[in-house]
Fold this sequence. Notes:
Layout: H1 2-10, E1 15-17, H2 39-46, E2 53-57, E3 65-67, H3 70-107
Parallel strand pairs: 1-2
Antiparallel strand pairs: 2-3
Amino acid sequence: MEDMAEQAQNMTIGELYTSEKEGNDDSGDGTQGKPFKTVLQAIRHAGKEPFPSILVDGKKEGQRWEPVSQAQLKKQKKIWQREQHKAADKEKKEVRLENIKILQVLNV
């Protein structure tokens, strides 16, 4: 419980941080101290639209963070949406297979 409170304290509401240099998609939590490595992982972490502001490594000297470009965000959102569709299709397929098994048992 303390860990969640600490995470909430460290994270500004509505912002997720990513860093190609210092981030880690496995152990990162999207805070400034533990950023994700990729924008896609930040989107996965958010889980649904509208997504919070996603900040990436700053390109200018002395600028630590900057908002992700719209082009990059759009590309990553498309990948995330495809993942969501694939997961939904897989779930439907599993349900159909389970129903077929039940029907086979009932017919025997």
